Amino acid sequence: MKFKNYLAVFLFTIVSAINVWAKDTLQVCSPSGKICVKVWMDKKLSYSVWDNNQLIVAPSFIDMILQDGKTLSLNNSIRSSSVKKISDTITSPVPEKRKIIPDVYNELSIKFKQPFKLQFRAYDDGVAYRIITGFKDSIIIKDEVADFNFPGESSGYFQEIPFNDSTDMFQTSFENVYTFKKLSEFPISSIAYSPILIVPKSNPKIAITESDLEDYPGMFVTGAGTASLKAVFAHYPLQEKINWALYSQSLVAKRADYIARTKGTRTFPWRVLMIAEEDKDLPSNDMVYRLASPSRVADVSWIKPGNITDEWIIDLNLYNVPFKAGRNTASYKYYIDFAKRFGFDRIMMDAGWSDNNDLLKVVPEIDMDTLVAYAKKQGVKIAVWTQALTLNRQLDSALDQFNKWGIDFIMTDFIDRDDQVAVDFHQRVAEACAKHKIMIMFHGTYPPKGFNRTYPNAVTREAVLGSEYNMWSDKPSPDHDLLLPFTRMLAGAMDYEPGMLINMTKENFRNINGYVMSQGTRCHQLAMLAVYDNPMQFFAGNPSQGFTEPAYMELWGSIPTTWDQTIILDAKVGEYIITAREKDGNWYIGGMSNWSERDLPVNFDFLDEGSKYKATICKDGMNAERYASDYIIDSLTVTKKDNMQMHLAPGGGFLIKLEK
């Protein structure tokens, strides 16, 4: 009986949509004609999306509601429309997936009687829309309506935040595990942040996110009790309070009844729907980057990301050293020696190198001038961690000091918000860093969502549940790791911080402070260098152990962090992935599995015709299913005609380096 009722409602929705489309319906299709968007105004502004003549997004509403009562839909009508075809390329100064990015789409522009415009772009790998306003004076936005309705019963992968009376649910570090549930079962008492992956009963899969987020709050979604999701936004913070602690933060004490106050004439963030016929189409999708505003940094020649060490996760628990390990000059000299030995560009001095609330107050155990001189002599750069609240307060003086020390990369942490004020903080800091020729990574914050195109010096972000969670939980499991390329990574580079050298099976994993281990095999960690997008790739393992495994560390230090091109050879959401990346004619192939043991074929037909390649192969050892740190490094010669079978232990992986 329930099925009959559901079917009747579904058929009524489709028939109603068809009746609407018969009058005043606008349409734009992707360059191949595969994906089409239909848009119409009938009391409410609505759209639907079709893929190969199959309805994949049912009629959904778009609206913007201003505090003065003006809305995109109320007493409004379509005045004119136009379609243009664009075929262009984007050259990325910090190429996460590829250096030359094709930007090919058809765009539908709609003008309304009221001072609103709407743009839809149809790509062959997705669609996006954004609202544009043309008011003379500034405006206050009470809410934005962005509905995502799906035909039939669909499920999705969500990072869910349940409602709690005692907390501001929009105050989050954006570091959650993904849950899989039916859209109709996603509670209206919870919210989830994007990206979100929608899984219908049959493909295509659809990822929901946003791009070009600027001077506006980020988009969350909530359930509606049906196969629908509705956008929700953090309201504007009217009052903030400082929580003074070891890691001090600015918390929202009171929020307004509106989400943003902003310029009256501007573009708003893109609402993005990535459409994937096959699972392997998702990790290589760079729609978010394409949709973002072009770089505002005129000279990008100084932006040079790379690989870097960090001591946070292992808590500087060094051994076999002739000094007392800790946050002191001797320990950081040791890290500089390690970086020099294995080809790392930088070391990170993480939290504790200074007073967290005063970046100009270095702790007595560290002689910064000595470290700076030593690093320069070794050809290694120094990077430092900062607390966001402190950096915001000491921005100019801190950046001046960093310039004097020769620091070209910093991390800032504990933002934990994406309301309009928090979003503006990112832009202000990135602009200031660019003037000082300093790269920055934001931690404890939302995904990049195209910000890294607009400010290429903002080379990466956290916004992911990564290696540090091994310190206190079992959440960063291989099952979790195999969801990230199809979800979080779609919104831009992510700082997972792999490199754990103590590796455990599911049964043997424990949380031990100072002796932090990871779940899955050693090669599972290594494969992340090729699978995960991150131009500033961290090594979070213990250098004392790394020194005892020179062949492994030399391989690690030789892996690039930016790429000329990326190909996903094979993938299945949450189960496995094989990624091939090319840099300067050499190829790097990373493969990862969830907790299932499996054999994966690797075909080399993407290699250059007639060329021979030296293959360095690091793969799970014969006993990796019991001793997860077991690995083998082999070398052989391969050509375009070759292929090989790779055996992955439970939670396993491999990395292949191909040099011409």
TrEMBL record:
Keywords (A to Z) from UniProt: Calcium, Glycosidase, Hydrolase, Signal
Protein name listed in UniProt: Alpha-glucosidase
Listed GO MF terms: carbohydrate binding; hydrolase activity, acting on glycosyl bonds
Signal peptide annotation: 1-22
Top-level lineage group: Bacteria
Keyword Hydrolase: yes
Residue stretches making up the Glycosyl-hydrolase 97 N-terminal domain: 28-294
